[in-house]
Design a protein that fits this description.
With 218 residues, this protein is an alpha+beta fold. The chain has a domain of 146 residues. The protein is built from four helices and five strands, in the order ααβββββαα.
């Protein structure tokens, strides 16, 4: 065979391919390595995330339960209950010298853009200690005035109770009630007022259980 013929023959010989098993091994090693990276990252961040969530919850509670009203750790002194709709509620109880002096729990309202989550604190007599917005999607410049950092509207509820004002006055002024609405955003404050009134009703309906002196696990 001449040299050109030999070159052509060599060129036509198919290159050998690596076994399919090698591809599977490489893919497996890659997936394992990626999984290990995710696992390590998760372990490194989970504690930080939990710590931040705990810090946020403590901050929310401190705004609706005055420090001089308790000598216990509010975050750890909890009671699990259900509202009238069967929704789970975590109740945080304030104690001083062993006596329950107040409680705090989340309530939900419905605004223009959807759900509004709030935290409310109530003393043992049923008087509001404070209400703060935890999360919402209301329109900036309009509905977001429910936030304490955007105005003092939410502070208006401190000191009120189920009978103060009377039940028929637990509405925005546009509906014949006690509370101001926002220009161009009546739905948002209306939803918050209803939620707070509902939260006070929950306290009244479960007052004995909420103020029971038993501690967690006893």
């Amino acid at each position: 065979m001449s040299a050109p013929d030999q070159s052509a023959a060599i060129a036509n010989v198919p290159a050998s391919k690596p076994p399919m098993g090698i591809h599977a091994v490489i893919l497996g090693v890659f997936c394992l390595g990626f999984g290990l990276i995710l696992a390590v990252t998760d372990r490194l961040t989970v504690d930080d995330i939990a710590a931040r969530a705990l810090e946020d919850r403590q901050n929310s509670l401190s705004q609706v339960i005055p420090d001089d009203l308790h000598d216990n750790n509010l975050v750890k002194d909890t009671l699990q209950m259900s509202d009238a709709n069967g929704k789970d509620i975590t109740v945080y109880r304030a104690r001083k010298a062993g006596q329950v002096t107040g409680v705090a729990y989340e309530i939900l309202g419905t605004g223009y853009a959807g759900e509004i989550k709030l935290m409310m604190g109530i003393d043992a007599a049923g008087k509001l200690l404070g209400v703060r917005v935890l999360a919402h999607k209301e329109t900036p410049g309009l509905g977001d005035k429910i936030e304490v950092k955007k105005g003092d509207w939410i502070l208006r509820f401190t000191g009120l109770s189920l009978g103060n004002p009377p039940a028929e006055r637990w509405k925005v002024k546009k509906d014949g009630g006690e509370f101001d609405q926002f220009a161009g955003a009546t739905i948002t404050p209306r939803g918050v007022v209803r939620a707070i009134h509902g939260g006070l009703k929950f306290f009244a309906a479960h007052k004995a259980e909420l103020l029971e002196v038993k501690t967690n696990g006893q």
